[in-house]
């Protein structure tokens, strides 16, 4: 058995408290063997965490990781115009190789900011899975289905691809990859395709993930056409089960909050994207009060514009207070849960808690920096002050993905060079 010891640090416990502990990891099993106070030098590999905070690796509940290629390509527009004028024309030009290169850039950024697990909706998913396999993260991947503007044959093929990808890739990368059926949203996928393909997703036993109630433009047509709220419609279509999770949930009313709580369906809060596209503010404290499982996501890098969950954590706490006019809303402790097991639970991945037997997915945050001094309250630092560049080691499934800020599984320089080339060529093609 190969072992890894991470020693000298302060440990974020599953109950949200922080105390001194060393961690010993079984690298063959990818699990935590033991927590102790004197494990220095006991591993085959040893990582120093003195004057550092050891947390579960962060979990990103909603992303489109290959969209890193479109970071900074189109800003300062509302969702509809942004998608139709800039994003979709560029995405039409994406090649499988572009998606591989964009995914590698996103995964590099995730590792450098302490993220070890994520849920992702995109296309050419085998390319993303290959990048995940190489990079060493854990993921729930799915093919995003859009049927509006497609003829019937193309629409059915798109939905079938999402089912096939979910079946074929589940368990890939030595079990680090799980999957889901991913219709893009309740307004971009026709009812007949939901009727046909949601039961197929249940047959193969994968969750369903989709965008829901992101903007008022997405809510109004469903209310007008069907006389019911979007999430009541989702429930009617069998898309509101305990294993399912929706992105955004910005414009949800009390009846929908109740539906989510009763169903046990998770909501992935994406405050950065919601603010940038001026979509609105999700009622996160009311969701929490109702007992809804809330996670955190960055959404794609084109609407954020980075993939750091520490940025997202601070946004979640800040916007939660602004939305309620209550400074005690969405406190630091809630945000620490969003970063770790809250999101893991919402997307159904077994990670996010540091205790013996659990997944050895960790981030080590260097506290030797002015903005994390003094150490009155390290949960507060996690929510309000820590930044991506403070992460010094990242471990997933017992493997060291980054050591002393050096990523071990991807060549940082080469990935950035390739991404620059592909992104420039892509935007040129889209402009032709
Ligand atoms: Zn999204």
From TrEMBL:
Q: Which UniProt keywords apply?
A: Hydrolase, Metal-binding, Zinc
Tell me which cofactor or cofactors this protein depends on: Zn(2+)
Under which main EC class is this enzyme filed? hydrolase
EC number(s) reported in the record = 3.5.4.28, 3.5.4.31
Instruction: Write out the residues that bind Zn(2+).
Output: 62, 64, 211, 299
**Residues the entry annotates as binding substrate:** 91, 184, 214, 299
Pfam families cross-referenced by the UniProt entry: Amidohydro_1
Q: Which GO terms describe its molecular function?
A: 5'-methylthioadenosine deaminase activity; metal ion binding; S-adenosylhomocysteine deaminase activity
Q: How is the cofactor bound?
A: Binds 1 zinc ion per subunit.
The record lists the catalysed reaction(s) as: S-methyl-5'-thioadenosine + H2O + H(+) = S-methyl-5'-thioinosine + NH4(+); S-adenosyl-L-homocysteine + H2O + H(+) = S-inosyl-L-homocysteine + NH4(+)
Query: Function of this protein?
Result: Catalyzes the deamination of 5-methylthioadenosine and S-adenosyl-L-homocysteine into 5-methylthioinosine and S-inosyl-L-homocysteine, respectively. Is also able to deaminate adenosine.
The entry sums up its family as follows: Belongs to the metallo-dependent hydrolases superfamily. MTA/SAH deaminase family.
Q: What is this protein called?
A: 5-methylthioadenosine/S-adenosylhomocysteine deaminase
Q: Which organism is it from?
A: Natrialba asiatica (strain ATCC 700177 / DSM 12278 / JCM 9576 / FERM P-10747 / NBRC 102637 / 172P1)
């Amino acid at each position: 058995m190969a072992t890894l010891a991470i020693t000298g640090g302060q440990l974020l416990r599953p109950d949200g408290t922080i105390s001194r502990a060393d961690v010993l990891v079984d690298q063959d099993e990818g699990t935590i063997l033991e927590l102790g106070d004197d494990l220095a030098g006991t591993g085959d590999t040893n990582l120093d965490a003195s004057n550092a905070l050891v947390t579960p690796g962060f979990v990103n509940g909603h992303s489109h990781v290959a969209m890193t290629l479109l970071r900074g390509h189109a800003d300062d527009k509302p969702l509809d115009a942004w998608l139709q004028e800039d994003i979709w024309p560029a995405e039409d030009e994406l090649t499988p190789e572009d998606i591989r290169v964009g995914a590698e850039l996103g995964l590099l950024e995730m590792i450098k900011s302490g993220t070890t697990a994520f849920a992702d909706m995109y296309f050419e998913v085998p390319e993303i899975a290959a990048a995940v396999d190489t990079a060493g993260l854990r993921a729930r991947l799915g093919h995003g289905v859009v049927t509006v503007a497609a003829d019937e044959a193309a629409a059915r093929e798109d939905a079938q691809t999402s089912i096939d990808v979910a079946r074929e890739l589940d368990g890939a990368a030595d079990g680090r990859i799980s999957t889901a059926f991913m219709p893009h949203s309740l307004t971009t996928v026709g009812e007949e395709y939901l009727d046909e393909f949601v039961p197929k997703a249940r047959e193969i036993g994968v969750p369903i993930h989709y965008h829901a109630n992101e903007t008022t433009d997405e809510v109004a047509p469903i209310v007008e056409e069907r006389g019911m709220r979007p999430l009541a419609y989702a429930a009617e279509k069998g898309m509101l089960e305990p294993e399912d999770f929706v992105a955004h949930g910005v414009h949800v009313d009390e009846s929908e909050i109740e539906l989510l709580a009763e169903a046990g369906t998770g909501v992935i809060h994406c405050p950065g994207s919601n603010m940038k596209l001026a979509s609105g503010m999700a009622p996160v404290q009311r969701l929490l009060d109702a007992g809804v499982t809330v996670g955190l996501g960055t959404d794609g890098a084109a609407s954020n514009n980075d993939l750091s969950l520490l940025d997202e954590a601070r946004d979640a706490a800040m916007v939660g207070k602004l939305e309620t006019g209550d400074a005690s809303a969405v406190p630091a402790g809630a945000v620490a849960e969003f970063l770790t097991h809250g999101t893991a639970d919402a997307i159904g991945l077994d990670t996010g808690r540091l205790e013996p037997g659990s997944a050895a997915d960790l981030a080590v945050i260097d506290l030797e920096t002015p903005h994390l001094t003094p150490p009155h309250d390290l949960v507060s630092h996690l929510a309000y002050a820590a930044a991506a560049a403070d992460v010094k080691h990242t471990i997933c499934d017992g493997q060291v993905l980054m050591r002393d800020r050096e990523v071990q599984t991807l060549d940082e320089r080469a990935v950035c060079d390739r991404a620059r080339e592909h992104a420039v060529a892509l935007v040129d093609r889209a402009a032709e």
